[in-house]
Design a protein that fits this description.
Structural class: alpha/beta
Number of helices: 11
Number of domains: 2
Strand order of the largest sheet: 1-10-9-2-3-5-4-8
Helix content: 25-40%
Length: 315
C-alpha cells in the first residue's frame, strides 16, 4: 500500500483498510503507511453530531427549546417510586405534549405504568418492547405485588429501522447451522430480533459500585433502540437524561443528542460520559469493536463514524 494509493481512498475504503487485522503490525510499529492513513482519515472524518445538554427541569424548559423537525424522543422517565431525589412521577400532560410534538417517542416503564400512560393519552402504542435484564436478581415484590423482573418500552410513532435490529441466528444441537452459515457468509449468521430484548443490566450485584444511576440502562439496549427509532442525522432528545446512556449510544451512531437532567449530580456524570464519547470520536481513529453485551450482534458495526452532523439549532 503506497501513499498514493492511500490518498486515493474514500472514507469507507480507508476505514476498512485500517480495521483489517493484517495491518495491525503497521499500527503497532508506527509504520509510515499507517501514519499516512491516519492523516488521510483525519482529513476525511466529518464533524461530530450536534449535542446540547441542559441542567434544568424538563417540565419547565422543554417547550422553550427550538427543535428541528427530525427529533426523536427516547427517555426513561422517573417512575415516581422515590428511589432518588428527583424520582417524581411525570404529569400526563407532559407525555401528551411529547407524543403530539415529536415524530417518534419511546418511553421506558413497568407495564402497569405504561398502560396508565396509554389510557391517559387515549391511544395504543405503535410498538411494544419487553426488556429482560438477563443478569438481574429476582425483584423484590410486596405482600400484594409480584417481583418486577422485566421493564417495557412503549413506542409511539414511526420506527424506521425495524429490519436493522438483528440477533445471532440459533444453532442446532450439533452446531451444524452455525458452521454452514460461517462458510457461506457472515450475514447468514443473523436473524431478525423480535420484541423481547435480552440485555444484562449494568452495575448488578458485585458491580453495584460501578452503577452510575439507580435506573441506568445498558448501552447495548440503548444502541438498538436508537437504531430502531431514528436515522443518521436525526436528533435524539432525552428529557430525563440521568447519567447520559442515551447520548452515549446515540452519538457514535451519527445521531445528534439533546438531554435535560434536573439533578446536578447526575447531570455532571452525564456530561462526563458524553464528553468522553465525543473525545473518543475526535481521535478520528477506528475504535476496537465492543464485545456483544446483549442478544444482538456487535453494534459497533452499526456505528457510523462518518455520519453527518444532525441538523437544527437546539440552543
Amino acid at each position: 500500500m503506497t501513499k498514493k494509493q492511500i490518498g486515493e481512498m474514500n472514507f469507507d475504503e480507508l476505514k476498512l483498510w485500517m480495521e483489517d487485522p493484517q495491518n495491525d503490525c503497521l499500527r503497532a510499529r508506527g509504520d509510515k503507511r499507517w501514519i499516512d492513513a491516519c492523516t488521510r482519515y483525519s482529513e476525511l472524518y466529518p464533524k461530530p453530531p450536534n449535542i446540547q445538554l441542559f441542567n434544568d427541569d424538563a417540565l419547565k424548559i422543554s417547550k422553550d427549546i427550538s427543535y428541528p423537525s427530525n427529533v426523536v424522543v427516547i427517555t426513561d422517565p422517573p417512575y415516581g417510586n422515590g428511589k432518588y431525589d428527583t424520582d417524581v412521577a411525570v404529569p400526563m400532560e407532559y407525555y401528551r405534549w411529547l407524543v403530539e410534538t415529536f415524530k417518534t417517542v419511546a418511553i421506558f416503564g413497568y407495564p402497569e405504568n405504561l398502560v396508565e400512560i396509554c389510557i391517559g393519552l387515549g391511544r395504543k402504542p405503535d410498538e411494544w418492547i419487553t426488556w429482560n435484564p438477563t443478569n438481574k436478581a429476582d425483584g423484590r415484590g410486596t405482600k400484594n405485588t409480584l417481583p418486577k423482573e422485566t421493564e417495557c418500552i412503549a413506542i409511539f410513532g414511526e420506527i424506521p429501522n425495524a429490519s436493522e435490529i438483528m440477533r445471532p441466528r440459533s444453532k442446532n444441537v450439533n452446531g451444524v447451522i452455525g458452521k454452514i452459515h460461517t462458510g457461506r457468509g457472515n450475514s447468514l449468521l443473523l436473524a431478525r430480533l423480535g420484541d423481547v430484548w435480552n440485555d444484562p443490566a449494568p452495575g448488578m450485584m458485585f458491580n453495584a459500585s460501578k452503577r452510575r444511576h439507580p435506573n441506568e440502562k445498558p448501552l447495548s439496549l440503548m444502541k438498538k433502540l436508537a437504531v430502531l427509532c431514528s436515522n443518521e442525522g436525526d436528533v435524539i432528545f432525552d428529557p430525563f437524561m440521568g447519567s447520559g446512556t442515551t447520548g452515549e449510544a446515540a452519538i457514535p451512531l451519527g445521531r445528534g443528542f439533546a438531554g435535560i437532567e434536573k439533578s446536578l449530580e447526575f447531570y455532571e456524570i452525564a456530561e462526563r460520559v458524553i464528553n468522553g464519547t465525543k473525545a473518543q470520536l475526535s481521535l478520528r481513529l477506528p475504535t476496537p469493536r465492543e464485545p456483544d453485551k446483549g442478544d444482538s450482534p456487535d453494534l459497533q458495526a452499526l456505528s457510523t463514524l462518518g455520519a453527518g452532523s444532525a441538523l437544527g439549532d437546539l440552543s
